[in-house]
Each structure stands twice: as C-alpha cells, then as structure tokens.
Automatic annotation (TrEMBL):
The keyword Ribonucleoprotein does not apply. Residues 181-319 form the Glycerol-3-phosphate dehydrogenase NAD-dependent C-terminal domain. InterPro entries: 6-PGluconate_DH-like_C_sf, 6PGD_dom2, G3P_DH_NAD-dep, G3P_DH_NAD-dep_C, G3P_DH_NAD-dep_N, NAD(P)-bd_dom_sf. This is Glycerol-3-phosphate dehydrogenase [NAD(P)+]. It catalyses: sn-glycerol 3-phosphate + NAD(+) = dihydroxyacetone phosphate + NADH + H(+); sn-glycerol 3-phosphate + NADP(+) = dihydroxyacetone phosphate + NADPH + H(+). The active site is at 192 (proton acceptor). Its main location: cytoplasm. GO terms for biological process: carbohydrate metabolic process; glycerol-3-phosphate biosynthetic process; glycerol-3-phosphate catabolic process; glycerophospholipid metabolic process; phospholipid biosynthetic process. Substrate binds at residues 109, 256-257.
Length: 329
C-alpha cells in the first residue's frame, strides 16, 4: 500500500472533477479540488454534486474543495487539469504556492500553440525545480467519475516518479500504467484529437465505415512518425495513450472532437460548434507545423488543419488524400 499523499487537482471542469473523485473515493489520500470560483467550490461542498460538469454523479464525502491557492503549500502531487492553452498561465499563477518537492502532472491533451512545445516542456519552463509528468489515455470524464473500468497511462522522466503517480492515482476502477516516455504519451493524446476530428468529418460527410478504418490506421502511422522523430517510442503509440485513445475518441460520440468533425463534415462552420472546448482544433495547426519542420509526412493532420483554417474544402481534401502517390504501408 502506498503512503497517504496530499493531492490537489487544479481545474474544476469535467476531467479535473473526475480525477479528484476517483482519487478521493477510497479515502486513501487527502484530495482537494482547487477551482477559481469560490461560490462554486462552496456549492460543491454543500450539495455534493457538480451539475455543470458531472450531472447526476455524487461526489465523495472525502473530497475537499477550495478556491485558495494556499492549499498547494503542502501538496505532494498537483494535477493541472485546465485546458492545454491555459497551462502556462496556471503554472505562473500557482507556482509560488507549490511545495518545493511537489510533483506536477499535466492532464491536458494538447500542444502549446504559442510556443509549439509539449505541455511537460511548458511546465518545466515555468516550474524548473519540479518533476513534471503527464496523465493521458482513453478515458472520458463521465466514465471515470461513474466508476466504470478505465485504464490510462502516466509518464515521467524518472521511473520511480511515474510509479509513485500510478500507485497514488489508481483505484479499484481506475488503473494507471507507468511509463517514462512523456513524448509518446503526450503526442498520442494531442494527435488523437486531431484524428478524431478527421473521423467526425468522415462520419458527417457520409463516407462510410471503411473510410473511418483507413483513417484510424493511417492516422496511427502519422502519430508514430512524429513521436519517433521527436524522441518518443513507437511502442507507446501502440498502447493506451496512442491507439487506445485514438480508437475511443474517433468512434464515440462522447468525444467533442468527433462531434466537431461531424459538424464540419456536414458543411458547418467551426464557429457554429457550441459543444465545449475542442483541443484538436488547436493541436492540428501546431502538429502540422512541427511535422513540416521535421520533414515528417502527415497528410491527414495537414488536411484537418487546412479545413479548420478555411484553406481547403472537404471534397478537395479527400481527393488529395486519395490521389497521393501509391507507396508501401
């Protein structure tokens, strides 16, 4: 059994709440959900439900709530569960409150748009004295909070840190696998969102299940090429944070990236989507630029970026993908 830890989850959206719930559920650790809205935190404490993020799901009695950054001062593990583009600002804002030995974990699935950096690099830049890990994989927030069986990956440079995180955050229905491949785990999480948009476009345009299968397999090949080029491991791509998350997000209507793609496939404009933040819309252009700089061929990712930016219509994108030079798999 692991020692009792103080864990703080920053970000009271759906995923942050779900992770806080699953860690607090068995009362093995001291867990606090830290949000910016003091009134919301007070309501959660009294009501025991988070109707905006987790309607109908009871929050554990053992879960604490706060809007005060002081709760970070003695926390050993701090999970950053805000969107990817907000992580740098969050690190700057909360950094002064962190315990000197706190381990930081990003839970966002994206790439920093302004710098083109992976989120662990962003957090290390802002918090250079803290070990930084990443949690990613095939897990919808609602499934996690409901206690449905879910497995994900957690990665850190130090294998001991990764193992500590896996042991602390895992529970009876939530299983984490430890990894030292932060690059592979992060890129899998970011790129599967882009490919889920592509899957939605296929569905929305009525292109059939065969096209979806081709997209998933060729998208996985693109993911693998970029992961290896950036120093990650091909094996990671075939695991939970790569293939696992891609299959889930590209096939389930719980995925807002898929729903966004369906809208595009039906001829809708990106601005017409009101289903929440679409991380893949940010990641597409950044991943395309990264691949271009490394000389990596990523035609599906490039097409998604061009469609979102209005540089390419769907019919032309499909024609271009289907008339590329024949090559080996």
């Amino acid at each position: 059994m692991t020692e009792r830890e103080k864990v703080v989850v920053i970000g009271s959206g759906a995923f942050g709440t779900a992770i806080a719930v699953v860690v607090a559920l068995e009362n093995r650790h001291d867990v606090t959900l830290l949000g910016r809205d003091a009134a919301l935190m007070a309501d959660l404490r009294v009501d025991g439900v988070h109707d905006a993020a987790m309607p109908g799901i009871s929050l554990p009695d053992a879960l604490n709530y706060s809007a005060e950054a002081d709760v970070l001062r003695d926390a050993g593990i701090v999970l950053f569960a805000m969107p990817s583009q907000a992580q740098a600002d969050a690190a700057r804002n909360y950094g002064p409150y962190l315990a000197k030995d706190a381990v930081i974990v990003t839970c966002a699935k994206g790439i920093d748009r302004s710098s083109g950096q992976l989120l662990t690099d962003v957090l290390e830049r802002e918090l250079p004295h803290h070990p930084v890990g990443v949690l990613s994989g095939p897990g919808f927030a609602a499934d996690i909070a409901k206690g449905l069986p879910t497995a994900m990956a957690v990665a850190a440079v130090d294998a001991g840190v990764a193992e500590r995180l896996a042991q602390t955050i895992s529970g009876r229905t939530f299983r984490l696998y430890a990894s030292t491949d932060r690059i592979g785990v992060q890129l899998g999480g970011a790129l599967k969102n882009v490919l889920a948009i592509a899957g939605g476009i296929v569905e929305g345009a009525g292109l059939g299940d065969s096209a979806r299968a081709a997209l998933i397999s060729r998208g996985l090949a693109e993911m693998s090429r970029l992961v290896v080029a950036m120093g990650g491991q091909a094996d990671t791509v075939r695991g939970l944070s790569g293939l696992g998350d891609l299959v889930l997000t590209a096939t389930s209507h719980q995925s807002r990236n898929l729903r966004f793609g369906i809208l595009l496939g039906q001829g809708g404009e990106p601005a017409a989507f009101h289903g929440g933040l679409v991380e893949g819309a940010y990641a597409a252009s950044v991943a395309s630029r990264l691949a271009d700089g490394l000389g990596i061929d990523m035609p599906v990712t490039d097409a998604v970026a061009a469609i979102i930016d209005g540089r390419l219509d769907i019919k032309t994108a499909i024609q271009q993908l289907m008339t590329r030079p024949i090559t080996t798999e």
